[in-house]
Design goal:
Layout: H1 5-31, H2 38-50, H3 69-79, H4 85-88, H5 95-105, H6 108-119, E1 125-128, E2 145-149, E3 152-163, E4 170-176, E5 188-194, E6 200-205, E7 219-230, E8 234-235, H7 241-277, E9 279-281, E10 284-285, H8 290-320, H9 326-351, H10 362-368, H11 379-395
Parallel strand pairs: 1-4
Antiparallel strand pairs: 2-3, 3-7, 4-5, 5-8, 6-7, 9-10
Helix pairs in contact: 1-2, 1-3, 3-7, 3-8, 5-6, 5-7, 7-8, 7-9, 8-9, 9-10, 9-11
The structure holds flavin-adenine dinucleotide (FAD).
Flavin-adenine dinucleotide binds near residues 127, 162, 219, 374 and 381.
């Protein structure tokens, strides 16, 4: 139902590229040094460009493949099977969200100076909204300020979980510019800050369950102390930050969910392979145990249900817009992240001790994908959105 000729032609090409070039790099780049693998990864990016597979999400006029959201979702699932997939094709978060945002709302100057090099994969970016001192679930509550003085904004604030700030060239920061606006959603703005601006400091990469990561594979705590940028670095209108954040999040949830489904697919494959090859007794494999069969069947059904839900939501966003698909977007966020947790956990259990070692990708996903239930709105917030909407329609 959601298959297009374009996606049918592209998906096997991406799959082949992953198997041939990306998967062999995984163990070293994920558990070794990501930075040490940058030259090899850059070479793969160049190859992806040569093969016409780079930035699949961008319009053709910007060097992309001009895919619809539904078509990109199918590609994204394949790329999600490797933690390096989206990175190699330059459609990884947070860059993809920043590209989409800047494409729609940044001035021609910002597009020329920052968006084009980002699209070409020459630089990376990050997005700084969450603050350690305030509940990120209620982002209107923030302390970072951008005060206008002449032709400049002076930014002061403390952020964390700024993903991929290590090695990035610029961030888009959410800061309060209009503190006295009556509407609390009209108080903040998005401002682009080049990361070599005096006053900006990356304090540390936050250790996530024992892993600080580096470069693209990290989350930083950062600060802005009297950090001055020209007012021309404002994205959209002053006070429009939350409006723009909504635009950024709709398709963003499709991207994340399809990436999670890709992880589930790979973990299920690993679960099956291990169950087949692991013998409890000669001639008696794990795959012959009914509990394991149940996990395989349940995982397969949940993955299929997730895929259909997400593609249906992508279709609705394209047809009717993100606002009309609000309920669906919330549904996929908590449904698919929960499936992701279950499938990774089952795959680890089937692998036994091996499952918690760093000899397979399962432990990487277990550590780093736990955040899926927290970022892009904690699951509980999305459940409330859905439940309230259902209750409202019942009440009439
Ligand atoms: C891996 C990862 C990457 C991230 N990347 C970025 C990034 O690049 N840029 C950025 O700005 N931020 C990023 N974040 C931050 C993320 O957006 C916040 O963690 C998220 O918004 C939750 O905010 P919080 O951590 O302050 O949790 P809190 O707001 O303190 O919430 C804690 C818990 O309270 C519960 N809760 C909250 N609200 C409700 C409610 N209404 N009803 C019931 N229960 C509720 C939930 O269980 C929630 O997990 C990232 C986070 C993670 C984990």
């Amino acid at each position: 139902m959601f298959e297009s000729d374009k996606a049918l032609e592209l998906v096997p090409r991406y799959r082949e590229f992953l198997e041939k070039y990306i998967i062999p790099l995984e163990q070293g780049a994920i558990y070794g040094s990501f930075k040490a693998h940058l030259p090899a990864l850059q070479a793969l990016r160049a190859k992806a460009k040569e093969m016409g597979l780079f930035t699949p999400h961008l319009p053709v006029s910007h060097g992309g493949l001009g895919l619809s959201l539904v078509e990109f979702a199918s590609v994204s699932e394949v790329l999600g099977t490797s933690p390096l997939g989206h990175y190699v094709f330059n459609c990884n978060a947070p860059d993809i969200g920043n590209m989409e945002l800047m494409h729609q709302f940044a001035s021609p100057y910002l597009q020329q100076t920052y968006l084009r090099p980002l699209e070409r994969g020459e630089i990376r970016s990050c997005f700084a909204m969450t603050e350690p001192e305030h509940a990120g679930s209620n982002p209107v509550h923030m302390s970072t300020t951008a005060v206008r003085e002449g032709d400049e904004y002076i930014i002061n604030g403390h952020k964390w979980f700024t993903s991929s700030a290590d090695g990035a060239s610029f961030t888009i920061v959410m800061a309060v510019t209009n503190p006295s606006a009556e509407n609390q959603y009209a108080r903040a703005s998005m401002i682009l800050v080049p990361l070599d601006t005096p006053g900006y400091r990356r304090i540390r990469n936050i250790s996530i369950m024992g892993d600080e990561g580096e470069d693209y594979l990290s989350h930083s705590e950062v600060e802005f102390v009297n950090c001055r940028v020209p007012v021309s670095h404002l994205i959209g209108e002053e006070g429009s930050g939350f409006q723009l954040a909504q635009v950024r999040l709709g398709p963003g949830r499709i991207h994340h969910c399809m990436r999670w489904i890709g992880i589930c697919e790979r973990a299920l494959g690993m679960m099956c392979d291990r169950a087949i090859e692991r013998e409890l007794n000669p001639g008696h494999s794990l795959a012959m145990q009914q509990t394991i069969q149940n996990w395989i069947a349940e995982s397969a059904a949940e993955i299929k249900a997730s895929r259909l839900l997400v593609l249906n939501t992508a279709h609705k966003i394209e047809k009717d817009g993100a606002k009309a698909a609000k309920e669906d977007i919330s549904t996929i966020k908590f449904f698919v992240s929960d499936v992701l947790m279950k499938v990774i956990d089952r795959a680890i259990q089937v692998h036994g001790g091996l499952g918690i070692t760093d000899d397979t990708l399962l432990s990487f996903w277990y550590r780093h994908e736990r955040g899926a239930r927290i970022y892009d709105g904690p699951d509980e917030v999305h459940k409330t959105v859905l439940a309230k909407s259902i209750l409202k329609s019942r009440r009439g």
